[in-house]
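User: Some background: our group keeps a shared notebook of sequences we're curious about, and every so often someone picks one and asks for a predicted structure to add to the entry. Today it's my turn. The entry only has the sequence so far, pasted here. Could you supply the structure so I can complete it?
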Amino acid sequence: MVTGYDHILFLLGVVLFLYKMKDVAIYVSRFAFGHSSTMLLGVWFGWGINSYIVDAIIGLSVVYKALEKLGAYQRWFGVQPNTKVATLIFGLVHGTGLATKILQYDIASDGLLPNLLAFNVGVEIGQIMALAVILIVMDYWRRSARFMTQAYSFNVVMMSMGFILMGTQITGYFVA
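Assistant: Of course. Here's the predicted structure to add to the notebook entry:
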């Protein structure tokens, strides 16, 4: 997505129940590595996927993360998927989505690598800034006696937003 709200929504889901900065750094780094590598490689080599399909998968990543935080996989299947691997995989998908969007523009190959690297650094700086705000707000929110109840509701809203994103993109695929 051009706006990046899907990216931020996924990151919210990633850090919601992470209380140690070390854990936040591990998960966000995995997501950033996946995101950066497929964005850079995708644009460099001209890999692109239909933007409606990849954006629907990105919506699915938000739903996945919300279900994970709600403990659905443990209840339904008796197993918890590896959250670190899932975060990396969905980082790869998010990066592919951004690469697909970038490829829709007529970009010159002259100076492509430095421009891609600069763009990626800007995206990651933006992510760090958004993450800083998220972590500050979450620190206050977690001190609330109602945090766990509200976090449950937040995950339901997050899952709904992921389904809306998926539905919008699937509809766009069939209408376009």
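Suggested note for the entry: DSSP finds seven helices and no strands in the chain. The chain has a mean pLDDT of 91.
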